[in-house]
Specification:
alpha/beta, Rossmann fold, six-stranded mixed sheet, four-stranded antiparallel sheet, 11 helices, 10 strands, globular, binds adenosine-5'-triphosphate, ATP-binding, ATP hydrolysis activity
């Protein structure tokens, strides 16, 4: 056991920090839902957030791109430091729109805009005031290729995104997320609304994307966490109970609650 822990610590030390969460608390109105969260996300690695329903996974995920700013009464305390420039994502001086370009998000249900395939991917570039057609064309193709969708849609870029299948729509949302060259992508249960084959495609895609960027994924599937992630954080009642490399979390967790959860004793 000591050997295994030593190995997992050295694996984690071998990675470079992309994001560091320091003493994060989050409140919906007067209710504190995240409690003193400390967590590091590594560059070019996938980190999974697991834990029973209502423990705060989605709430934590949404802090990374300031999604909570969209609703009044929500409040953050603490820091989320994005490297390499060490900016605090949560600082009021930092523009949340710019944060969302650098930290993009893919939701549970595919949510394309009521626009063409092309315009869905071009959206973030237009928000960034990019107007040069040749640059937008190039970025749209690059993002669609990155999301393994280009070959299926290259001859129908002006079709409505709603005409795509559910799995294709989710890859389109990934392409939309990729178009602004994000440094971190947040996936909130990205395969819970699509079939097993489409799920496999998305998981393969995550594997490819991590060659370039950091990824944080919320999943209810222990199998998925074990397949796609390098590191796993187990949350319970708004706290991170345990964080380690995924293999250790699943085979040799330090906390009884983690062990019970990964063995399916509660959920
Ligand atoms: N907009 C909101 N206003 C008030 N409370 C909220 C809001 N959204 C979530 N909560 C509460 O915050 C807690 C954490 O919810 P959250 O959705 O982050 O959990 P989760 O771990 O992602 O759950 P699930 O796995 O079921 O999606 C829950 O008690 C939930 O009821």
């Amino acid at each position: 056991m000591v050997e295994q822990v030593t190995k997992s610590m050295s694996e984690s030390n071998a990675t470079k920090a992309k994001v560091e969460v320091r003493n994060l608390n989050f409140y919906y109105g007067a209710t504190r839902v995240l409690k003193n969260i400390n967590l590091m996300l590594s560059e070019k690695r996938v980190t999974a957030l697991i834990g029973p329903s209502g423990c705060g996974k989605t709430t934590l995920l949404r802090c990374f791109n300031r999604m909570h700013d969209l609703y009044p009464g929500n409040r953050y305390e603490g820091d989320i430091i994005l490297e390499p420039d060490s900016i605090n994502i949560l600082s009021r001086r930092v523009d949340p729109i710019e944060v969302r370009m650098r930290v993009s998000m893919v939701f549970q249900k595919p949510n394309p805009f009521p626009k063409s395939i092309y315009e869905n991917v071009a959206y973030g570039l237009r928000v960034r005031n990019e107007s040069k057609r040749s640059i937008i064309d190039e970025k749209v193709e690059q993002a669609l290729r990155g999301a393994a969708l280009w070959d299926e849609v290259k001859d129908r870029l002006n079709d409505r995104a709603y005409n795509l299948s559910g799995g294709q729509q989710q890859r389109l949302c990934i392409a939309r997320a990729l178009a602004t060259d994000p440094e971190l992508i947040l996936f909130d249960e990205p395969t819970s609304a699509i079939d097993p084959i489409a799920t496999m495609t998305i998981e393969e895609l995550i594997e490819q994307l991590k060659q370039q960027i950091a990824i944080l994924i919320v999943t209810h599937s222990m199998q998925q966490a074990a397949r796609v992630s390098d590191f796993t954080a187990f949350m319970y009642l708004g706290e991170i109970i345990e964080f380690n490399d995924t293999k250790t979390i699943f085979t040799n967790p330090s906390h009884k609650q983690t062990e019970d959860y990964v063995r399916g004793k509660f959920g």
